[in-house]
Prior knowledge:
By secondary structure, the protein is mainly α. It has helices spanning 2-8, 15-22, 26-32, 36-60, 65-82, 84-92, 99-117, 133-150, 160-172, 174-182, 196-201, 209-220, 233-240, 245-257, 281-292, 294-301; strands spanning 261-263, 277-279. The protein folds into two domains: 2-182, Tetracycline Repressor, domain 2 (Orthogonal Bundle); 196-308, Arc Repressor Mutant, subunit A (Orthogonal Bundle). α4 crosses α6 (84-92).
Amino acid sequence: MAAACGEVGAGRVTVTHVVSHAGVSRRTFYEVFKDREECLMAALQEALRRGSERVLPAYQAQKTWRGAVRAGIEELLGFLDEDRTLSRLLIVDSLAAGPRVQTWRAKTIEKVGEAIVSDGRMPRTVGEPALGASSVVAGVLAALHTRLAAQPEAPVSPLAGELTAMVLLPYLGRGAAVREAQRKAPRRRAPAAVDQRDLLASSQLRLTYRTVRVLAAIAELEGSGRRGCGPSNRQIAEASGITDQGQVSKMLARLASSGLISNRHRDVTGRREPNAWTLTTAGTQVERAIANSSELRGEVASPRKPSQRPRGSALRGPSSGR
């Protein structure tokens, strides 16, 4: 959906565009989503979730409100630079969508504004701001929209100082805003080369052949569950080739406790609904580490017998009863 919106615009995108990008049939689409708008909302909510996973820890880790605003904006801009498809969907393409998306966008802006002014670290000696918090957030989005629309490929990270100043101005005054605007944008380093097995070891979970299959199944089935949520236990079992539902449930519980997956199911109807699993940021990194490692892919696709496994291997081949 995000790619299709970037190609034809959120106001003109159709189910045909989406299934063409996804490589699935219209029947498969309607098994997951009620209509085009529901799919678009799911894409926007997923983009917001991924961005929040980056921004919130950086924001909350700071001692001062001013530092928190700066860190949050820097992390947001880094996320937008790293995934330009989702960036355009959130900031640019969503403006051309229908009333439901506009209502969601307005409520999201309002929530962000409320979070900013309700932060206990915010100085209380400057009085009420000239602008409402929602207006400040909307101003930041407008600046981002201008950059992304005019220069689709240009990085937005250099805007960190300008946008931080925009947020601080009505609360801390012109002096603080000018100082932030004059600060140099942080140099975003390319991710350092990481040994794939070191990354797997950091998950604090011994990855077996079946565990890897489950992670791969969740990644493949992302958004295939009810109303665009993650896959259920049954869907994961079928995709990973594990027939014992008890084994699947225990494995999913271990992966969740290790922080690699999370259950997005919310029981709002008062009745029991299927689980809806999704990879966390850490889980995505581990799954990609496996997918990008030719050695590990070979072990998963054709696991060795115990006597053939290299000593210290991160993966174990399947064995009877486990």
